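Section 3.1 - Work completed
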Amino acid sequence: MEKGEYYVGDLCYVLDSYTWDRLCDLRCAGYEPLDGELELPDGRRVAVFQTAYGDGVYEGSCGGNYLVDSGSIGCIKVSDLSPEYQDDSSWGHFIEFDDDFTVESDDGVIRIGHVEIDTN
């Protein structure tokens, strides 16, 4: 993903209902939900991964908690959020990534750059 300031958490809290529905459509195109980097129809990039045990509260390596209601955790650039969501980090965290970064999930551990969230 490209460097910058990102919201990291459950994307259902920071995407409007239309955009959330488009993301769900992209992820649910096959038998298994797609995980990883995805491009929304309007060109915005997101990354999203299923949690190991669905909804709940998961602790991240930076000490913060991530509240999950969609069974997934992801990231999106803050500048790609609607203005009403750009200053509310009550559900996740705003994190600055100084360099381009990778995203992955392995055995329930979601890694977004230097942030690690163990959902297992």
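Second construct:
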Amino acid sequence: MKKISILILIVITVISFSKVKEKTSFRITGTIDQNTTKTEEIILVTQTKEVQDTVKIVSSSFEFNGKVSEPTNAAIIVGEKMIKFPLVNDEIELRIINTENNEFEIKYQNSKVNENLQSYYNKESKEYINKYKLLEEQKVKSENDIIKNNIMASEDSLAVDFLQQLNRKYKTCPDKSGLSIIISDLKGLIGTRNHSIEIGELFKLLPSNEQNGFYGTKIKSYLAQSSKIALGQEINFDFVDINLIPYALNDFQGKLVLLDFWATWCGPCISQIPLLKKVSEKKDKIQLISISIDEDIDKWKNKTRELEMDWINIHYKQENIDLKKNFFITGVPYNILVSQDGVILRKNITMTDLLEILN
């Protein structure tokens, strides 16, 4: 009996010492090659805006202390240069080798956040995107509608397989640091954005504080959008355009309608304007309505003139409706394709796919 008791005590002791104690604050100790910069201060900021701190560089060394409520994207600013890295409550060593080229080394004492994110961004998502782009190229080259439909089905299967692969990985991963950042990226990643059920399964793996945190709130809005703005749902609303001309969405029944959410500060939105112009030329088949989520009204109006957006342009804030809120818009570009009968036909359709349908 004594031998059993001693054995149990040994096991408990081993478990106690092997368990990594979770940190409640961070300490970043760093060195910098000052041959590349003359600045005497260094700034730390987080995407969540939870941390914004400035410290002096002393003998090429610096130190930041603080805490974050969840893993977050962070950046260190040295002069005009910005070095991005994931921040978590941990002991972190950061060595800036050459700020001109943004080269740096980073070591975490306990958390696997950097390892998880490096694996996702530099390997897993990269491999997935390369496979997806290859299918897109095959689809564009093909003139056979049956083959195109088969390729689209393959793209959907690829997205589901990728999401399920990540689900399996993180179900068994003891340290899920950075997973909220990864899921936030997945909801907008090419091909995966329309697979909210699989993204929702990944979301369930997050601890409650991260589900209700900065990234978790964005993911929840996306999941709400996916469930409440559903395919087959009938939609209609009244609005006035940039020239104060009144319309109702059902004024355009009989042809397709594309609701294109965008902003003047959104690079991907601006880059797809040439394709939107091609869509707008198909006036007999589709009505294009661009909906700006800009807060600066003058900037929005000036940009539509500058880009020669010669179709219906409206602002998300209407007299009796907030279109950004009603359509759960958490990021742009985002679009909704409405059928000739006024129901949601597709969400986040690529302009290439849409032009193929119109042609």
